Amino acid sequence: MENKSKELEVAIRAALEAGKILEKYFETEILKEFKEDKSIVTKADQEAEEVIKKNILDVFPTHSILGEETGHTQNSLVYTWHVDPIDGTRNFANGLPVFALSIALEYENNIIIGVVYNPITKSLFYAEVGKGAYLNDKKINVSKDDSTRAILVSGKGRSAEDRKLSRLLMHNLPGAFSGLTVRDLGCCALDLAILARGGFEVSVELGLIGHDFAAGVLLVQEAGGTITKLDGSKWKFPENEFIASNGVFHDALIEEIKKQKEKMSI
Hints:
The protein has 266 residues and is an alpha+beta fold. Helices cover 36% and strands 27% of the residues. It has two domains: 6-139, Fructose-1,6-Bisphosphatase, Chain A, domain 1; 147-263, 3-Layer(aba) Sandwich (D-Maltodextrin-Binding Protein, domain 2).
C-alpha cells in the first residue's frame, strides 16, 4: 500500500516487534496460567501486549488502548486501539502455529486500521479504511467461489448458547450446501484474515470479544467481503454475532441459519 497513514505504520511496526516475542516463546516450555473464564494466558501474551502498547503510546500518547491482558487505558474518547497480543493462545501454548496477534484502531465507533500478523508463517495482513486490504504488501480480495467449493470457519465464545449454536451450524450447514466443508481454527483473527485473502468463503463468529475480530472485520470489508448480523440485518462494531463472507451465497446462508435456529428453538 502506498501512502500508509502514521497510524497504520505504527500498528505494523508494533505487530512486527511483538511478533518477535511470540517467535521466541513458541514451542518452548512456556508456563500456562488460567484466567477466571478458563482461558489461557502466557508470559508471551503479557510481554507482547506491553510492546504493542509502548509502540502506540510513544507516538499517540493521547489515544486509548483496550488490551486483552491489561484492560482499558483510558485517554482519548474518539481514538481507541483494540489489542489482542495472541488470538489463539491455546494453539500457541500447545505448539500449534495457528495463532496471530491483532491490532485495530477505532475512531468514532468505526474501525479504520487493522493489522493481523502470524509471525510463524510471516503473514502480515493489514488494511486501512478506503484503501483496500493487503497481505505482505500485496493487495488481496475475497474469493468468488460458491458453496460447491467453499470452506466455512466458525468461532464461538464461552456461553452455552454460543457453543450450542456453533455445533449446530458446523454439523448441519454442510448438508444444506453441496460441497461446503467446515473448519474450526480456534483463532478468529486468522478466520477473517484468511477469508479476506480468498482462502475461506464464510466465517460465522459467535459471542467473541471486540479485540478478537476488530482488525479482521476491516480486512474482510476492504477485501470486498460482506458482513451482516445472523438475521441479515446491518452489522456494526462491536456487535459480536455476525456472518462474514465473500458475498456469493450470503443470503442463502442467512436463510439456512434462520431455519436451523428455529428447529432448535434458539
